Amino acid sequence: QVQLVESGGGLVQAGDSLRLSCAASGRTFYAMGWFRQAPGKEREFVAAAKWSGGSTYYVDSVKGRFTISRDNAKNTVYLQMNSLKAEDTAVYYCAAGRTFPIMGVDYWGQGTQVTVAS
């Protein structure tokens, strides 16, 4: 059974940093990534990483501030978020799928709340 378990969300001040983690169990995936959904908005893509080769892909609004990485031995993907802004406030979802850089998502995590106070 496939599970994606996220952790690391919380309440921070603008300019602070957070690191999200997503541990996958059950299998490995061609690509893993992160999406987010702010109140009243559609879920949007944030970042993705291929499981081999080191390729990554970001939405323009987080380039230079967020870094996605993975630990293959732990089957875990991370999202390091620096210089956080109020507009980064959202529920962040881990995702796993078969395509990159445009992620076709096969599995979702349960979501973790990130709140950035201005």
Can you put this structure into words, describing what you see?
The chain is mainly β and 118 residues long. The protein has strands at 3-7, 10-13, 18-25, 31-37, 44-50, 56-58, 66-71, 76-81, 90-97, 105-108, 112-117. The strands form two sheets. Strands 2, 4, 5, 6, 9, 10 and 11 form a seven-stranded mixed β-sheet that branches. The N and C termini lie far apart (40 Å).
Distance between the termini: 40 Å
According to DSSP, the number of beta strands is 11
Weakly predicted, low-confidence segments: none
Strand content: over 45%
Rounded Rg = 13 Å
If helices are DSSP runs of H or I spanning 4 or more residues, what is the number of helices? 0
Global morphology: globular
Name the average pLDDT. Answer: 95
Order of helices and strands: EEEEEEEEEEE
Quaternary state reads: single chain
Biggest pleated-sheet summary:
7 strands, mixed
Structural class from helices and strands? mainly beta
| Helix proportion | under 10%
Provide a brief overview of the structure.
This protein is mainly β and 118 residues long. It is built from no helices and 11 strands.
Question: What's the structural blueprint in terms of helices and strands?
Answer:
Layout: E1 3-7, E2 10-13, E3 18-25, E4 31-37, E5 44-50, E6 56-58, E7 66-71, E8 76-81, E9 90-97, E10 105-108, E11 112-117
Parallel strand pairs: 2-11
Antiparallel strand pairs: 1-3, 3-8, 4-5, 4-9, 5-6, 7-8, 9-10, 9-11
Keywords:
single chain, 118 residues, mainly beta, four-stranded antiparallel beta sheet, 11 strands, globular
